[in-house]
Design brief:
- By secondary structure, this protein is of the alpha+beta class.
- It contains twelve helices and 20 strands.
- The longest helix has 19 residues.
- The radius of gyration is 23 Å and the shape is globular.
- The two termini are about 35 Å apart.
Length: about 525
């Protein structure tokens, strides 16, 4: 059946490319309103879920996975609702750096590392990381000092402090902070390039050493590659720490933070510049994905000074293609540990995958081995063939529909739903820059689908998140998949920019806490809580 799909998709794409013209914003909105059975202007049932969990990161949900490569891996979902004060996902970044510093201070001889990247990078952004302070977990901008007496520290200062202690620190950014509006006036930030560069010659707390001996700092100077979206080519938002000590004094290894939010300035209400919904996730105890992320950022260092991204793009594409082929052939041990930049799980890890773009394989094909979007939509199609219900949710405010793969993805999703006639099927799409109406108009609520919500939010910029959730049955077992990623879906995002794609695959055996907790926050119009499966 899937072979038939590939033939059908080629024909439909040809037809689409011949017949489609760019739609005005009103046209897409009108088509979406005609499709929806729940035209909700604003999510209304999320508030009761917004209480932070009782953990250091103040996350909105957490999950624990046992026997992952011989250990226990924890995941913490971070989320700030539109117009919400506090609970900014940037706090967890600052806290991890601070707790990593505490580890190094306790173990001065240990080899400890931090890597950090952000598209926008604010020098002034500060977080209260003092667990005894009533402000713990809150953010503000500090323009005239590195820290204050209330427990707030600049994130930028913490990175310099870490290097001064002998922690191996890698920092990469592309643009200065976007600035925030206070009382209607745009407040700027000063150059993160100047800030970090000015500290490289500072004396470290190790005799005869400087901060620059332990800190590698780069600005991604990529300005062009002849394709679209050249302005945001270094689009990763990543933080890794090799070690940290939590607030209770327990020592940990291997943490990865990734999310939709830049290291940007905040308003007095702790809102970032665009004030859209922001998300992130912290994964702890997973050495492999922490190391893969660190490898990727350190590879990027060698290419940041070039004006064009093409050499870096070609290198990453080559490595991804080679490494994925080796992994799928059972030869992952042939990849040098410090060079691996993709992770597809293992025999003892069926939960996690981590990809960085540019993706491997053929740029223009429906590639289920190298492109996780195609891979999981293909699995959705296979799940539809079983007769069991399927679910798909995607919020992406910059889904640009003017290139072939964007249509392929929508056609693949719609093909799965057309293939399945299960009345429990669920579809929720917030893609305001696209017009998905032609793909899904034949799905009738109550006949071949249970819930269908397509482009109904009045405020098209409601979400800054890009994440995908889907559920299907594979080999008799229901899968609950969440794809955390930083891609604005346009032709540059997969094959020219640097972006992050983290996949979490849950089952009845692992429990589906991340799928449910995050799904209910992202789409409160869907009853995710009824779907919860306890381990």
């Amino acid at each position: 059946m899937r072979k038939i799909f590939y033939s059908i998709i080629s024909l439909l794409l040809a037809t689409t490319m011949l017949c489609s013209v760019p739609l005005a914003q009103g046209t897409a909105t009108q088509g979406a309103e005609a499709l929806s059975n729940t035209a909700t202007a604003k999510p209304s049932t999320r508030q009761e879920l917004l209480t932070p969990a009782n953990n250091d990161f103040l996350s909105r949900g957490e999950a624990s996975y046992e026997n992952i490569n011989g250990g226990i891996v924890n995941a913490y979902t971070l989320y700030r609702d539109t117009d919400e004060s506090g609970n900014n996902p940037n706090f967890a970044q600052a806290l991890l750096i601070y707790q990593c510093i505490k580890y190094k201070e306790k173990h001065p001889e240990a080899d400890v590392s931090i890597t950090c990247s952000s598209f926008h990078f604010s020098v002034a952004l500060s977080a209260c990381v003092d667990k005894n302070s009533p402000d713990y977990g809150h953010l503000k901008n500090i323009y005239d000092a590195e820290y204050d007496d209330n427990g707030y520290y600049r994130l930028s200062y913490l990175l310099v402090k870490a290097a001064s202690l002998g922690i191996d620190v890698t920092v990469i950014g592309q643009l200065d902070a976007a600035g925030v509006k206070q009382n209607g006036v745009l407040t700027g930030d000063y150059s993160f390039d100047w800030y970090f560069t000015s500290h490289l010659d500072d004396e470290a707390q190790i005799s005869g050493k400087t901060v620059g001996d332990y800190m590698t700092f780069r600005v991604a100077d990529w300005k062009s590659y002849g394709d679209k979206s050249a302005a945001d080519m270094m689009h990763n938002k990543i933080l890794t720490v090799s070690h940290y000590i939590d607030n209770d004094g327990n020592e940990h290894e291997d943490a990865l933070w990734t999310g939709s939010i830049n290291i940007d300035g905040v308003t007095s209400e702790e809102k970032n510049g665009n004030n859209s919904t922001q998300s992130a996730i912290v994964i702890t105890g997973h050495k492999k994905i922490r190391q893969v992320a660190e490898n990727y950022l350190k590879l990027m260092v060698d290419y940041c000074d070039q004006e064009e991204i093409v050499p870096f793009r070609d290198k990453v594409k080559e490595l991804n293609t080679e490494q994925i082929a080796l992994i799928l052939a059972g030869k992952e041990n042939e990849i040098p540990e410090d060079e691996q930049i993709v992770y597809l799980g293992s025999e003892s890890d069926k939960v996690f995958e981590l990809y960085f773009t540019p993706l491997g394989g053929d740029f223009s094909s429906w590639d289920v081995e190298n492109n996780p979007y195609a891979k999981y939509i293909d699995k959705l199609i296979s799940g539809a063939e079983t007769g069991e219900y399927i679910e798909f949710s995607w919020n992406n405010v910059k889904y640009v529909q003017s290139f072939e793969l964007a249509d392929m993805l929508l056609e693949g999703i719609s093909y799965a739903f057309r293939l399945s006639a299960n009345k429990s099927n669920m579809l929720s799409l917030h893609l305001p820059e696209a017009d998905p109406a032609p793909y899904f108009e034949e799905l009738v609520v109550g006949e071949n689908i249970g819930t269908k919500v397509v482009n109904t939010y009045v405020n098209k910029w409601w979400y800054h998140t890009k994440d995908i959730q889907l559920s299907y049955v594979e080999n008799g077992q229901r899968q609950y998949v969440t794809v955390f990623n930083s891609l604005n879906l346009h032709e540059g995002s997969m094959y020219h920019q640097t972006n992050t794609i983290l996949v979490i695959k849950e089952t009845e055996q692992t429990g589906n806490d991340i799928y449910v907790n995050y799904g209910q926050l992202l789409n409160p119009h869907i009853d995710y809580l009824a779907k919860r499966i306890s381990k």
